[in-house]
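From the shared-data thread, chain only:
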Amino acid sequence: MKTRVRIGVVAATVALGAVVFGVTTSAAAAPVVAPVQQAPAGGSGCFPWQDANTYGVKCNDRSGYNAVARCKDGSTKYGQTVVRDRWSYAYCAGHGGLKSGWVAP
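Structure, as tokens:
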């Protein structure tokens, strides 16, 4: 019986300490997650491709889209507007290389 009381007192003390110091079990156990690279703005029907200088995208759920690339020198380049299931490429060669890319509209 004394052991149960001691366990209860220890548990209550730990719980009170967590409340006083603002620690919760879920916050303490939450894993640290690295940032995830953002998916292209086109959604799940678009498939991006990239290398050091080029951003390309192919969408199977729309027509009238194009690749857009942000280059390392700050310039923005636009690929040709294409129809469904075609690739559009935006090139940053000569502009410091590719920094990021997305699909528009």
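Confidence is low (pLDDT under 50) at residues 14-40.
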